[in-house]
Amino acid sequence: MKLTTKGRYAVMAMADLAYHSNEKPVSLTEISLRQNISLSYLEQLFIKLKSKKLVKGLRGSRGGYTLEKPASEIKLSNIFYAVEEEVRTLNCKKDSKRGCNNKSVKCITHNLWDRLDNHINGFFENVKLEDLLKENYEQQRNK
Amino acid sequence: MKLTTKGRYAVMAMADLAYHSNEKPVSLTEISLRQNISLSYLEQLFIKLKSKKLVKGLRGSRGGYTLEKPASEIKLSNIFYAVEEEVRTLNCKKDSKRGCNNKSVKCITHNLWDRLDNHINGFFENVKLEDLLKENYEQQRNK
DNA sequence: TAGAATTCCTAGTAGATTTGTATGATTTAA
DNA sequence: TTAAATCATACAAATCTACTAGGAATTCTA
Question: Of the residues A54, A113, B7, B56, which has the fewest C-beta atoms closer than 10 A?
Answer without folding.
Answer: B56
